[in-house]
Design brief:
single chain; alpha+beta; 5-stranded antiparallel beta sheet; 3-stranded antiparallel beta sheet; 3 helices; 11 strands; elongated
Length: 166
């Protein structure tokens, strides 16, 4: 420890991860110290899916970091994968039903693989991102994320709504 700050602790292959409940985990360090009710979160959720995973306590403080999932034993790795998959579940937009605008906020009604969803987008320039490969990432005003895997595969009606919002 230096300057009164806590040093980052990394999880090693000798530490064990078990399910606490739902998506929470218990981390047991090699020395037997256990910390319960931790939430795994990706530090780089877009480009490093299996690297640098932080483990947060209920106050959101970082307790430890997993550098690479491959550093963990098979059972611990699977527990972390399942927890992350559930937390980062991103619905795929299959069709844009309607888009309306009121006071600068866009209200989208979409069809996803999980049914019809409605949400608001505050800033179209910041909250709708189109990647070079045609994948579109949408973030709503509640910080939920949606994805259109390839906007070119949308029906004409949906593509028109999307293009008019850009």
């Amino acid at each position: 420890m230096s300057n009164g700050t806590k040093e980052r602790r990394f999880v090693s292959g000798n530490d064990r991860i078990t399910v606490y409940e739902n998506n929470l985990i218990t981390l047991t360090f090699e020395d037997g110290t256990a910390v319960e009710r931790l939430e795994p979160r990706r530090l780089f959720p877009v480009n490093l899916l299996s690297s640098y995973i932080t483990l947060l306590d209920k106050e959101g403080r970082e307790i430890a970091v997993i550098r690479e999932l491959t550093d963990l034993d098979k059972d611990s790795r699977e527990i972390i994968r399942r927890s992350l998959e559930d937390y980062y579940l991103v619905p795929h937009i299959l069709r844009i039903v309607t888009v309306t605008e009121k006071y600068g906020t866009l209200h989208w009604k979409v069809e996803t693989e999980r049914g019809i969803k409605e949400f608001d987008i505050r800033n179209r320039n910041h909250d709708i991102r189109i990647n070079k490969d045609g994948c579109v990432r949408v973030r709503d005003s509640d910080d939920n994320r949606y994805v259109i895997p390839d906007y070119k595969r949308l029906d004409k009606h949906s593509r028109n709504y999307l293009i008019s919002d850009l």
